[in-house]
Specification:
Length: 697
């Protein structure tokens, strides 16, 4: 029905074909490239796309790209899956993410609360291994957020938005020249909302609230025509509540100790670019410091009949520093005998200290416990890429990256490990261009580092059941994973119509699959296991169509078929729990189809209407159990009025108020049901309506 409404709108509007599609340049590659010439699967979302949905965080706009999903289990969807590959949570153990997150040249991989969208110019979603350019943090893909740059003329913006659930959004931007060669930009935003949960026990409606502040400063200095120095400083302060689960799977909770999801990140980056007659020098230095705190109520209730009650809190202190230095050839790469090359060196260091504490009580007393761990990683990478024309219209690109990592882990349970290893990845592609059509084929390899299962290693000494000790003893460490990807695609760019089509098959060697084990009565430990025979196969389509002066259409569609491989997990429905093989089941958070359709119609010169529809198939929430989400369809809309420097819009997300699930668990948590194992779900955003006013100076 929702798709039919969009089709009828399109067919009812006369088409005159006079407008053109704006050309987009992709920057999350070793050399800036026009999207129309890129031999790979990439979706680029512009500032207009972000404004059309009136969203605050990148998890709210990922549905516009094919085969991209996210996992909640927190105040925001901080963990992303691309083509079925990606983590879904982090508790005690260190995390080596499969999907990278880069914001203004700073690596925020694994800490996605920084993905706020105020004053963001462009979002790039690169699907498939990005091993040559980004290494182990981008085995499954990469998300890049690029904010607006300082302007050459003075400009400023003020915006205010309000909506139901106590939504309040205040933002300000000021940008312009300071001197002839120096310009700057400041952007600040504060977003606040009560959230969508009512806590009946505490009589509050803000225990799952949002309180997010973003500050960003950019300075651009051009000492000469050949040199540019850019400086970026950013601060993200998130103090969100986390009270999302209930025993009844509704938006009404009865938690006596609601949780929280907090992140304070401060970062800066300095980028230096110099062009000589034949080469380009590019150096990027960044540093990031982050404090995270994540806590929740174990039993999601206050039931007096519960003989096990408690809560958990995880605090992490993280700091990282990275330096990327590259030398590349100068000149265009357009004709026969043209060549281009890039050589680079990347150094990265990250330290993470965890302070974990929990408490639980039963009918006989209170039992607090604590746990600490320290994790550090040092990585050194060398990479290179070379492109040349074989014939007038046929070109070849080859790139590789070698990475050495030196990790160190220790914890208060006496577990110590210092794994050191090296891996390599790369991409080789061939491209044939004919007029506005390109055909490409690519073979690429991505990789992830191995490590130690800290919880599993500590669990061996707990004195628990022998069968659990035996199970964990075989999973104290996990090996590095490599991913082999094969892809072919077509891409066409015209003034009014642009589209891309890709087909891919990926094979995962030593696939790192997350699972859980239960220590009776209610203590869970996670671990990573290596499995063979994991595969991810699919198709992706992106389309942009400027149908007339008044009508623009964008759409995406993805198909995905995944196989988990030979993974053995614990079946908690048996007594005692038994091992069960999940061989060839679909991978978690990998829906078999996804789609998005967006229609923008200019009613008059001042009034525009935007309608969006996004949907996805059901998917498994975990590799360790078979609980699934429902398939879903969400409709969003915005009506905007523009008058010179003023904008006023009325908008709605999920306007049909569809109930859908973003995270799911399976275990016994309700004493009124004798602790029987059953599913528990986190629900996605309900219908949200609001108004926004903006003025440009």
């Amino acid at each position: 029905m929702k798709i039919l409404l969009l089709v009828l709108l399109i067919l009812s509007i006369p088409q005159s074909f006079s407008e053109t599609i704006e050309e987009i340049v992709v920057s999350a590659v070793l050399r800036d490239t026009k999207l129309s010439k890129l031999p790979g699967s990439t979706t680029v979302l512009t500032e207009k796309d972000i404004q059309s949905k009136k969203v605050q965080h990148f998890d709210q706009i990922l549905g516009m790209a094919p085969n991209v999903n996210y996992a909640a289990g927190a105040s925001r969807g901080r963990f992303v899956q691309i083509r079925g590959i990606g983590e879904r949570s982090q508790f005690k153990d260190p995390l080596d993410a499969s999907v990278g997150l880069i914001i203004d040249g700073i690596d925020f991989t694994g800490i996605g609360l920084t993905g706020t969208l105020f004053d963001i110019r462009q979002i790039e979603i690169h699907r498939g291994p990005q091993g040559t350019a980004f290494g182990s943090n981008a085995m499954g893909g990469l998300i890049l957020l690029e904010s607006n740059t300082p302007s050459d003329i003075f400009e400023s913006d003020l915006s205010v938005g309000m909506g139901n659930y106590g939504d309040l959004d205040l933002g300000a931007v000021i940008s312009g020249p300071i001197s002839e060669n120096l310009s700057a930009r400041l952007a600040m935003q504060h977003y606040k909302s009560n959230g969508f949960i009512k806590n009946g026990f505490l009589s509050k409606n803000d225990t799952n609230d949002f309180d997010e502040q973003t500050f960003r400063a950019k300075i651009r200095w051009r000492p000469s025509d050949k040199t540019q120095v850019s400086f970026t400083a950013s601060s993200y302060d998130t103090n969100n509540g986390y009270d999302a689960f209930s025993l009844e799977n509704t938006r009404r909770t009865d938690s006596d100790e609601p949780g929280h999801d907090r992140q304070q990140s401060n970062a800066f980056a300095i980028n230096f670019v110099n062009e000589s007659a034949s080469i380009i020098l590019d150096a990027n230095l960044f540093r990031e410091e982050t404090d995270l705190e994540y806590g929740f109520d174990w039993d999601w209730s206050n039931l007096a009949k519960s003989n096990i009650r408690g809560g958990e809190n995880n605090e992490r202190e993280r700091d990282s520093v990275g330096l990327d230095f590259r030398v590349s050839s100068k000149g265009k790469f357009e004709n026969r005998n043209d060549t281009s090359w890039v050589i680079g060196l990347y150094s990265y260091r990250k330290n993470v200290d965890l302070y974990y504490n929990d408490h639980w009580e039963d009918d006989w007393g209170l039992y607090p416990s604590s746990f600490r761990s320290s994790f550090s990683t040092k990585r050194l990478s060398f990479y290179s890429e070379f492109d040349w024309f074989l014939l007038d219209k046929l070109s070849f690109s080859g790139g590789a990256r070698w990475e050495n990592y030196d990790n160190s882990y220790s914890d208060s349970a006496g577990v110590n490990s210092n794994p050191e290893d090296s891996s390599w990845g790369g991409r080789f592609s061939i491209k044939y261009a004919h007029n506005d059509l390109i055909f490409y084929g690519a073979i690429s390899q991505g990789y992830k580092a191995g490590g130690i299962n800290g919880q599993a290693a500590a669990g061996v000494d707990t004195g628990t059941a022998p069968e659990i000790v035996s199970f964990l003893s075989q999973r104290l460490e996990f090996q590095s994973e490599s991913l082999h990807s094969f892809e072919v695609g077509l891409r066409r760019y015209q003034e009014r119509l642009s589209w891309s089509l890709s087909v891919f098959h990926m094979e995962r060697k030593n696939m790192q699959a997350k699972a859980w084990i239960l220590f009776p009565p209610a203590d869970w430990k996670s671990y990573l296991d290596n499995v063979d025979d994991g595969t991810n196969t699919g198709l992706e389509v992106d389309l942009t169509f400027q149908a007339s002066d008044n009508l623009a259409l964008t759409a995406s569609f993805g198909l995905l078929d995944t196989k988990l491989g030979k993974l053995t997990v614990q079946d908690i429905d048996t007594d005692p729990p038994q091992a069960v093989d999940k061989a060839n089941r679909e991978q978690a958070h990998a829906p078999s189809y996804q789609y998005s359709i967006s229609v923008n119609y200019l009613i008059t010169e001042a009034v525009s209407l935007n309608l969006q529809l996004e949907g996805k198939d059901k998917f498994y929430f975990s590799n360790g159990h078979d609980i699934q989400s429902d398939s879903m369809q969400l409709m969003h809309t915005r009506l905007q009025y523009d008058l010179e420097q003023y904008e006023f819009s009325i908008w709605g997300r999920n306007i049909f108020n569809e109930k859908y699930k973003t995270r799911g668990f399976y275990f016994g948590n309700n004493p009124l049901k004798e602790w029987v194992n059953e599913p528990y779900y986190q629900l996605g955003e309900p219908r949200v309506l609001g108004i926004t006013a903006q003025v440009h100076f």
